[in-house]
Amino acid sequence: MPASTRVPQQERSRATQARLLEATVECLVEHGWSGTTTTVVATRAGVSRGAQLHHYPTKAALVTAAVAHLAERRAEELRTEAEALPPGPQRLDLVIDLLGAAFTGPLFVAALELWVAARTDRELREALVPLEARVGREMHRLTVALLDVDERRPGVREAVQATLDLLRGLGVANLLNDDSSRRAALLHTWKRQLATLLTP
Amino acid sequence: MPASTRVPQQERSRATQARLLEATVECLVEHGWSGTTTTVVATRAGVSRGAQLHHYPTKAALVTAAVAHLAERRAEELRTEAEALPPGPQRLDLVIDLLGAAFTGPLFVAALELWVAARTDRELREALVPLEARVGREMHRLTVALLDVDERRPGVREAVQATLDLLRGLGVANLLNDDSSRRAALLHTWKRQLATLLTP
């Protein structure tokens, strides 16, 4: 088979996967874990059941791939957005705002659906635990890079960790209500503390 | 009907309710929202379906009553435990440890199951939103009382809020893994910061 027909097929395959993964995250956000079925996702993505099962044979495989895919895309977007930020003392505030938006966006909501469901679903938990650890490490590294701080300095690692744990708590507080004005006030104070903790 | 038979009946009724509510929380912790059915709860509590429906006609009514009941009991326990703490500079650390345990215990896990389920379940959300607001306010007030601080001082309200949001984030981080050693290290640093923020 000539290369010219193989490449488009690989591309079609990648496009099908991307459509399935994005439909999965949308489905988790709209209908939650129990309302997300592989059939609903296939229909939403406009992909046949056969093609779906070929790429992702189980619901656990589909949802973990979806969260991994979106986490990578989101990290890429955060890097791009952070590159566009002006340097200077305002940078820390703007980075925290970007992260605050990430922890209240669709990826966070979809991931939380999976974390909670995985507590009582062994198959999902086994697929999710390694992914959660990897995404957690990458989020930590990304935050260190965005804030442009040196983790070898005492206190920096702890300050970054506390920021991410605080943002996770704020993400949960935003689940049922728009908590944005309380969150903005709280993060305003946190930014001042963090600036002190991170300043050599 | 003489008072002597009415009172035992009220007591039996209260005991039945308490058994149902405690079985509900246990069920949410073990089986999650979708695995918690009113039938499973009634069996677990050793209560007839008729008696259960008499007290709590819907699943939403049962689970919100269960979380409200356990939140009250837990607040009572926290007050009692805090009263037994020695006064002095160690008190803040010990209060944070008590709160850290509360945010990783069964009530937190059961409440999180409901918050996440309520996102995509209108009936549950309508029952839960007012309860979440009330429990949130009471938790804030209780924390202020346990720390024995004056909220009218600038910064105290924000420091208490940040502590509770951080603890919520740490509770979620503990869902699939035992995160206790990372949490202890992080809270160790947080206690020092909080002591500074709360000191007049």
From TrEMBL, chains A, B:
A GO molecular function assigned to this protein is: transcription cis-regulatory region binding
Asked whether the UniProt record includes Ubl conjugation among its keywords, one would answer no
Which parts of the sequence belong to the HTH tetR-type domain?
Answer: 14-74
Protein's UniProt keywords contain DNA-binding? yes
Which keywords, in A-to-Z order, does the entry hold? DNA-binding
Source taxon at top rank: Bacteria
DNA-binding region ranges: 37-56
Q: Per the UniProt entry, what species is this protein from, by scientific name?
A: Micromonospora echinofusca
Classification via Pfam families? TetR_N
Q: What is the protein name given in its UniProt record?
A: Transcriptional regulator, TetR family
